[in-house]
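Notes from the pairing session

We agreed to fold both candidates in a single pass and log them together. This is the raw record for the first candidate, unedited. Please don't reformat it; downstream parsing expects exactly this layout.

Candidate A
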Amino acid sequence: MATDTTENRDGANVVSLVTNIISDAQDLTRQQIELFKVEIQEGAKKAQTIAMLTGAAAAVAVIAGVVLAFAAAGWLASAFQNLPAWGAQAIVGVVLAVVAGILFGVCKQYLDSFNLVPEKSVEAMKENLEWKTKPN
């Protein structure tokens, strides 16, 4: 009879231990999902701020570019007496198009390197799911 009580107590301890492990694993998964959400939100806010600042800078740059292009074309036309105004404007336009192409290339490199998904959280989540589905 004493053995039955000991076995029941040991069985209850094992069940309690397994229940606690499962509960802890669920809590860890919930916490990682919450961390994942927070990291995604922070990344989205940062991307939104970058986009707004880039848009404002682009608008000002367009206005400045137009004014400077007319000034440069005017200077070229006055510096070279035989150069018509449209020729000076064409030269300035080509130079600005080349500069714009270079800037777009740089922007593309930055965008290609930007990742909204937090890699560390995703990797940790994969490890936990692997551990849950294939316990050793």
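Candidate B (folded immediately after A)
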Amino acid sequence: MHMEAQGYGDSDSRLVEETRAGSEKAFREIVERYHAMTFAVVRGILGDRSDVEDVMQEVFIKVYRGLGGFRGEAKLSSWIYQIARNEALNKARKPSVTETPLDDVVIESPEESRPDAEYRRKIEREYLERCLAELDEDFRTALELRYMGEMSYTEISETMGLPIGTVKTYIHRGKIELKRVMSRRLFVDLCKEGDRS
């Protein structure tokens, strides 16, 4: 039993059984427990916020429908991770309808709005998401699970089905790669600004 990693082993089994028996409360608990991880995985692959919400709903619908066939050979977290990853990858293969509006949001119009703290945070978050989207999928997912899902190395290792050493390497290399992407984007943006003036 792997109680120390997720801290949920026995209670996961209980929640699965109660959900199968028709308890909505038990399923809500599963959703709450694995929401951050699922969000991190899906956003790690898609980056786009509106797609993330759609896929999150699909993931938990599939989890609910699939619990009847869940035999417990894998940990519940690993099983949900695989569903989230597959759903996000399927969505990523389809052309995104929301891409253009997101691009429109990033274009600043000084006449219309005075940049304040909230607006800056929104722009920074979108910028970070775009940079993350350029990373290798494994690096991106590991970073998202660590910093958005707030998971330990052990939890990430079990969730992604990788040795802890590999997880640490992915996170380390992911941070280096993210800095490189952000620097390059900043340089390109500054060049574009220079061309306009």
